Amino acid sequence: AKALRNRKITEQNISAGGLFSSVRAEDIIVHEYGHVISKFYGNKGLEITGKAYYNIHGKEATGIELLSFLENNVSKYATTFKHGKYTEIMPEILAKNNSNADEFTKEFVKLLKEVNSNEKG
Q: Which of 73, 51, 55 is nearest to 118 (CA)?
């Protein structure tokens, strides 16, 4: 309970072991909104990851290669498999993009915005 009420304690707890993409309290909010976005668009985190990876590296990656890429470049938590889905990919990428954007996270967000445009249009 103290960790949830105290920003410093929260940041210390979530940074233990480098499990998450970010240790900033603000990014927890972005991460949680990422779940809402992911559910709204059908949990397309791995699909968008594959497209972003291709756009940057010019080659397709297998699912195992994408998961390894995510683990090494975003977070270990991004590759969590629950209830038959990788539900943490989008939230973790969005959290990292919020605090420590890189070429991959920027490309992912660009592609996510295109999905958003296509869903509306």
A: 51
CA-based nearest residue to 21, from 97, 82, 86? 97
- pLDDT tens for 85-117 read 999 999 999 999 998 999 999 999 999 999 877
- Is residue 103 within 8 A of residue 57, CB to CB? The reply is no
User: Residue 60: beta bridge partners?
Assistant: none
Q: How far is CA 53 from CA 1, 2, 36, 61, 104, in A?
A: 39, 39, 23, 7, 7
Residues in the chain: 121
In sequence order, which ranges of 1-121 are alpha helices (DSSP H)? Answer: 2-5, 7-15, 25-40, 45-57, 63-73, 89-100, 103-120
CB 109 within 8 A of CB 97: yes
Q: Within its chain, how far is the Cα of 117 from the centroid?
A: 20
- Give tens-digit pLDDT for 37-63: 998 888 899 999 999 999 999 999 999
Work out the number of other CB atoms within 10 angstroms of the CB of residue 119.
10
